[in-house]
């Protein structure tokens, strides 16, 4: 019998098709640039950087540029109402520190990364890659946020991806 | 001629099918509960409420419960590093005020609401409805955030919606 072209496709529930399309998208396809501060930056300067760069999460890197922490608007707000001297307090006091940071990689699916943000209640994930010959150290090569997901949702809804 | 069932569907590009499915979802289907403070609440108490309720945006309502403003983590962080007395400063000083608030409604599509969040660079929208006989006043009946969109994206990717 002649194969019925397209029949198999159309017999699938649309839900499954949507899920398949979403699973094709990799973090590397949509990731943004990471915004980072050095680990000895003050909380005050981190807040200023956050406003200047217009991001909700900053990566905190050591002197060699490797990921050491992540600091969110929420972390900084908590520090800011705590009453300490924000110009003297280093950001390392309030950041989430390696190895407790939830990360993603360029070849992970955006679906998996999005699930991590929901499960761990974070607004952004650093996109990292291992450093050759330096076990336990990672380099930050990007940033994936709930804004990235929202933008992607709009693109999908407009048929543009 | 006998209609070729499913043929039309399968001849559509998958992108268009995904877009169609996304356009079916209304704000009312996914909206969360609004979290609100009164307009005379201090910035300090608003921050505390934000942490207790674990939200990134609070609705600010007048004494009758109608929407008067919206305050984000970003607004509060800006106030917190400004150096004023946060216990004495009312949240109304730092909030975005009506009619400048970007809102959505239950019967709007989530796609349209998501596009508003991207275009206006906000993390959350109040879901509102008009008040009968009170022109220019609105009641807040929900909240749509980038977290809502991320959760929806995960559901779509898992084939669960």
TrEMBL record, chains A, B:
Domain CBS: 29-86, 95-161
Superkingdom as given in the UniProt entry: Bacteria
Alphabetical keyword list: CBS domain
Keyword rRNA processing: no
Signal peptide: none
The name this protein goes by in its record: Transcriptional repressor CcpN
Covered range of the whole protein: 51 to 211 of 211
